[in-house]
Amino acid sequence: MLTVENLTVRFPTRFGDTTAIENININVQAGEIHGLVGESGAGKSTVGAAVIGLLQTPGYIAEGSIMLGDTDLRALGVNQAHALRGKRISMIFQDPQTSLNPLMTVEDQLVETILAHEKMSADEARTRAIDLLEEIGIKNAAERIKSWPHQFSGGMRQRVVIALALCTNPELIIADEPTTALDVAVQSQVLDLIRSLADKRKIGFILITHDIGVIAQIADRVTVMRNGHVVESGETAQVLGRPKHAYTRALMSAVPPMDHKIDRFSVPTTEGIEGTSVSTGDLAEQWLLEEKGLSEGEQKELSIGLSIEALDVRFSGTRKSLWRKPEDFIALDKISFNVKPGSIMGLVGESGSGKSTVAKTITGLITPNSGTMMLGNEVLPAGKSRSRKHPSRRIIQMVFQDPYSSLNSRHKIGSILTEPLWFYGLEKDPAKRQELAASMLALVGMAPDAIDKYPHQFSGGQRQRIAVARALLARPRFLICDEPTSALDVSIQAEILNLLKDLQSKFGLTILFISHNLSVVRQMADDMVVLRNGVIEEAGKTEDLFERPQAEYTKKLLSLTPVMPKDWA
Amino acid sequence: MKKRSLRHSALLSSVLVSLAAGVSATGASAETFRWASNTDPQTMDPHAVNSAPVLSFLNNVYEGLVRRGEAMAIEPSLATSWEPLVGQNGWRFHLRENVTFQNGAAFTAEDVLFSYQRASSEAADVRSWFAPVADVTVVDDYTIDFVTTAPNPLFPDSIANFMILDKGWAEKNNAVLPASDAENFATMNVNGTGPFVLSSRDPGVKTVLKPYSGWWDTATHNVTEAVFTPIGNPATGIAALLSGEIDFIQPIPLQDAKQVESRKGFKILEGEETRVIMFGFGHEHEKLLYSSDVKDANPFKDPRVRLAASHAINMASIDRVLFRGKIEAASQLVPAGISGYSEKNAARHEYDPKRAKELLAEAGYPNGFSFGLKCTNDRYINDEALCRAAASMLSAVGLKAKLSTGPVRDYWTQLRADDFDMYLLGWSPGTFDMEHPIRFLLHSQDDAKKLGSWNFGNYSNARVDELLPLIQQEINPTNRQNLIDEVVSITQKDAAYIPLYTQPLIWATKENVDMTQRADNFFLLRWVTVN
Amino acid sequence: MFYFIYKRLIQSVFVMLAVAFLAFSLFRFVGDPITQMTGVETSVVDQERLREELGLNDPFISQFGRFTVDMLQGDFGYSFRTRQPVAEMIASRIPATLELGVVALLISLVVGIPAGVYTALRPRGVITQTILITTLIGISIPTFVIGIMLIFLFGVQLGWLPTFGRGETVNIGFWESSFFSIDGWRALILPAVTLGVYQLTLTMRLVRAQMMDVMRSDYIRFATARGVPMRQLYFRHALANTMVPVITIIGLQFGGVIAFSIVTESVFQWPGMGLLFLESIRFVDIPVMGVYLVVIAFFFVVVNLLVDLLYVAIDPRLRV
Amino acid sequence: MKEFIKRSEGLWLFTRSPAVMIAAVIAILIFIGAAFAPWIASVNPYDLGSFSLMDGLLPPIWQEGGISQFMLGTDDQGRDMISSILYGARLSLLIGLSAMAIATVLGVGLGLAAGFYGGRFDAIIMRIADIQLALPAILTALLIDGIARGILPPEVQQDLRVVVLTLAIALSLWVNFARTARASTFVEMNKEYVQAAIIMGQGPIRIMFIHILPNILGPLLVIMTVDLASAILLEATLSFLGIGLAADSPSLGTLIRIGMQFMLSGEWWILWIPTLFLVALVVSINTLGDFMRDVFNPGLR
């Protein structure tokens, strides 16, 4: 049905034209879900945009043909192409939060889209819209259709988005990361919906995603892309189960398995990191170990634990009326857990479960309503009562989720890295600070000359390494990693996870590892806690929890996470 | 505008102006006469405020015992004749009979007495006119006596703007006294005996007058309705005139006169006001306030320094460039034509920078000195430009003037606070007699006797102080002129002030309108004819 | 939401009081009302007596207290210059200024929004560049020069429009309006254009920037991807979403319009509050100046409140 | 050279937009002319002794009566127009730049603090901003002018008019900066680098100025250019309303105000030459501001 041949897209820049994708061939049949997988920068989205004719200016199609049935999409005029959009090809975007016009009701948007393509009365369009909503699984659609987008939850919103894409019975839907912003439970429902639409309505899908698990779960065929080229293409089971190409194999091996724990990830390719002489990191290593002159083994005994007792956090709600008191929102409901010295504790939960609130409370960003926190044997003052000079400010360090915003983009790497040394008074001599920072970069696997560059000159994975280096330069004993890899590609994720593991074991760090990704936690954590709506659902040894989950919620989470069929791996 | 400049300047104004020159304005309607001025009369109460816009406007509605003719001379109005009282100081006025107010009430001596009481009350701003009056007595319905404390030959001249209200009307409407803090009936309503009656008033926007059919005098105007609009921005005013929306405007900026005149259908009325523009000094200050080099002395105490300043000013070039040849240089504090003007002392200190430098050297300042010159920028025609030019001329002889200009709203306050070294002042004698400036500007300051109240620098000369009462009381014109000549000669020698020029009057009107331009800048509708 | 409005009201009162206080304190420095109120021949003694009567010798705080208390009781005092009640003077001038301001604002919206949309959708076009440069030149010439230029062009030269004033007005109750006569409208055009040109440029540039931003948003891309007609896309989707920030700025600008109307009114002899205020400054008419400022602050506060309500009307997310 | 230009996005864009280049050339010429006015101008228009009324009202050289000594003619005082304009631009730019600088420091400081602390502090700052917005610029100018006159000794007042005017303009412009800085700070506050700094225990001053400020400079720079232009225009307007500078030390605005008197009298150059100059200056500053916004916000291109 859709045949893309030799598609090449170029973007003119001040350095001349750059090629975004080159010689892409893709074939999608009716009722087929065609997965398009690859890491960021692979050109997946450009393929989708080129097919629907919405390339970001000034990009242009340099070569190739795109045929939808008998229609040559490249031959269409501007108006014809626009008329075709929605009618025969539609598209779903990643974030349901931003995909809907916030100022129009769902009904308006549906009716408008239907009327744009079909000759019918507004009433008929409305009836059709309601039917559509029913079909994609919105209950009480006749009522709900009058709502505004913000009145739907994330999953429901993505359903509305799909309904909008379905309005006029398109032959092809391009779904660009349709579930990336969703929790696992919702993700699974949306994927089911897509599958059933493909089967029932015989719609062809191009499913663009970086999540190999998702592909494995629903795609019929898959195309693996890298740097604008097709690496491998074919039946899903064949490509993922018996990959021919080395890249695909490496990619598969970087995916953390859900069903067993592995020691280290085998890293597919390098960003030119391993090549740097590891010996330059010796200085930093020595420095990290030299505290009180202990050897590597003894250092571990200095490890510090954290115990949390009945921690309760409430946020005051917005006042809705003059006479009513605002209702509090309970973020954490008297939770207690214990992070053993020198261990990694995993904290798992869906969005809104309170994971990040835990991290913020421990770091003092949030003042809890009640509860105590003990760092080692000492009480950790909470929130605002923790003085700026409190020793825990150094002992507890944090690695954030978004490597793009966690480094100040206007500061050089050197100044970012030496800041803790200077600030905590760990090293008085500025020259030594530079030296140490450079060495720490080597320790986390980066070239020491990065010190003179700015964050934007690095990729996400490299930035996350820098963030880890910054945390280490405070000589921490306790590290909080809040979704440290969720913004990264799977191969980079593997590298960072390896790095964290290595450092943890070498320096006897205690780590609180926060993630929504169960398979990652399984690889990383000794113990884990499952959090839901501010309440601990289950806690225990990681292996026990995965093998013998007790709580219903944990079971559900485990069952919904897309996994690759065992025989593929 | 020169024809040539058109070819060279593609800029809009020239084009506009030149193109417009060919378009004739629409003719003024004989029915309605529209005129504009830059200030709205702030009240309709003739006694509340002693300001030219109010008095000028109300002269169309109210009348006094006497009035001024086209040439400023006193002529009978509500009084048909007057003579000095016999046996005591003062004047007797014989009132006109068969005069009715605009509400129909008859005019009698009681109304004059009432108006006197009203105008001399504490709430009246014009009460200073009646400072010499000891008593007023009604002799009969049409005769009234004003008794003065001393012989006062000028008294009838000084009350030309003393307007008569109807006693009954004022009492009925609770306007016995001028409004002092709140409004009263008379601030927005009128009831005079004059040629025009107020038809509607929207303060600051529009005031409409209609002829009063019961006026005692023969109307020489042909105006059936007169609409007054204040227009503050001079350019807007000119535009309104040129577009035909108004028939007459007073005053216009003098640099625009040529442009208006060059257009078909418009003309300019030029004349001289009675106002003399002058510089004053801080005679009594111990030291200069604004000097950067002379800190602890006041060179202006020395008449030679003041004389030097006077010799430094080139009136001819000020006239040519700034005033486009429209001003008359002044030698004394009143212009020629005002009673008491000293023919004997008509010569100005001529422009002589060399002499000025010599005088400065004699006074001990061969290199001059710096000082502050204070000026208004919104009070007199071209006041700011004048001061800039003067400062430049003074600097040329070594009198390095630091100019500071500001709006008039706090200018007098600064002058009263002695916050100046040298300053600009314009003076128009309210009585049209030389005695007026002598009393206000030349006599030593004396708050109790209300003398020298605008003599900010406190110029003080014992002989002048001695001469003022003599002048005030002298009935014989020749003797009186001699006394005045003496004052003028003393103050000229002393260079008490530097009189500069008489302020010009530039009015613009449609060509088909005839009117009289009076030297006090009053515009009276009764002299308007629209052809 | 009611709580929100309630909070807003409290804040507004505070803002107005503060403006009144600031305003009042500045009048002490503007000049001396007495010398402006009296003629040249008035003696110093009489001036002093008048000053005492008007309470100008009282301590500043008691003057301000009296001013505030009187005002809260609805007594706005009397003008020093004309002796008329200030409330009446200002009230009679409000319609002129408001009508001028509203029409100027309308011009800026009616022209500015489409121009902003156009220049956003065709960012590289010749027309766009022309519009951008012309408006830039328009706001670079001081308002007073533009006003006089327009007067001479349309009033004197072409004779199409009046050069000053409001023309014929119609009274509707206390409201004196120029909206109900041809003459009134003709008189309104030039000053409104003069006043509106600056706002127009601001509005246009703002709409343009916002529009360009919105056009890149996901929901516009999604709407494009499902083939919503272009016209609907631009005007229903994009423009509506542009409006939220635009309204804020326009609301703030209304204050600017009223303030800048001082210049426009003085050039066109437009009998509004600004003209009255300028005259009041000239004559140091403290009561009028004080009330003017409070009225301005009141407008500002009301407009701000309206803007907040308008937000709620436009954006369903704010309707809690 | 070409490679060097390509390395910087801004420079590259610059070389590709002729309008921006022209604007830059004009702006630079005016800035240089203004900065070096005392060395370029033939006379010092502020020195009363250096010109003569005798030379008054001479037209530009290409018009009949013009003389080569005064290329663009003279005003009613006999001042050379070129010199007046150069000195006027100098003063206008001085006022504009310092007003902008003060407004920036004040506005950005308050906006940063409001965004950083939020809550009650933010509310108070924003209400102060409201009060400022409710006071038109002319009134602020009157207020400052009045206070200065009330507290300063007379001999310095005249010299300080520039300061007074600058302060008045700065006060009416700071709100823009405060609002923008506040909004941007709110955005930055949610970024993790700020949280990292807070967690470390760094002081608020350091976080605000070392960490946040460099990240919000982009939009502020745009406002700075736009406000520089408005400051220059505002000064002209205040001058028209009679609270500007004295006529003997004119800024561009004052020159235009004075020139208005000659709109009809035939001496067109006294009004239109400074106006043309002001337009050129303001348009080029604004064009550069637009260009900067485009560079800082690539999405708008």
TrEMBL record, chain A:
It holds the Pfam family ABC_tran. Keywords: ATP-binding, Nucleotide-binding, Transport. SMART domains: AAA. InterPro entries: AAA+_ATPase, ABC_transp_ATP-bind, ABC_transporter-like_ATP-bd, ABC_transporter-like_CS, Oligopep_ABC_C, P-loop_NTPase. GO terms for molecular function: ATP binding. It comes from the Bacteria. CDD domains: ABC_NikE_OppD_transporters. Residues 2-252, 313-558 form the ABC transporter domain. The keyword Transmembrane helix does not apply. Belongs to the ABC transporter superfamily. This is ABC transporter ATP-binding protein. It comes from Marinomonas colpomeniae.
From TrEMBL, chain B:
Residues 74-447 form the Solute-binding protein family domain. Gene3D superfamilies: Dipeptide-binding Protein, Domain 1 (3.90.76.10), Dipeptide-binding Protein, Domain 3 (3.10.105.10), Periplasmic binding protein-like II (3.40.190.10). Residues 1-20 form the signal peptide. Keywords: Signal, Transport. Belongs to the bacterial solute-binding protein 5 family. This is ABC transporter substrate-binding protein. It comes from Marinomonas colpomeniae.
Automatic annotation (TrEMBL), chain C:
The chain crosses the membrane at residues 12-30, 100-121, 133-156, 185-207, 238-263, 291-314. It comes from the Bacteria. Residues 94-311 form the ABC transmembrane type-1 domain. It is a multi-pass membrane protein. It is found in: Cell membrane. Coiled coil: none annotated. InterPro entries: BPD_transp_1_N (IPR045621), MetI-like (IPR000515), MetI-like_sf (IPR035906). Pfam families: BPD_transp_1, BPD_transp_1_N. Keywords: Cell membrane, Membrane, Transmembrane, Transmembrane helix, Transport. Belongs to the binding-protein-dependent transport system permease family. This is ABC transporter permease. It comes from Marinomonas colpomeniae.
UniProtKB/TrEMBL annotation, chain D:
Its main location: membrane. Keywords: Cell membrane, Membrane, Transmembrane, Transmembrane helix, Transport. PANTHER family: ABC TRANSPORTER PERMEASE PROTEIN, OLIGOPEPTIDE TRANSPORT SYSTEM PERMEASE PROTEIN APPC. This is ABC transporter permease. Residues 89-289 form the ABC transmembrane type-1 domain. The chain crosses the membrane at residues 20-41, 91-117, 129-148, 160-181, 220-247, 268-288. Belongs to the binding-protein-dependent transport system permease family. It is a multi-pass membrane protein.
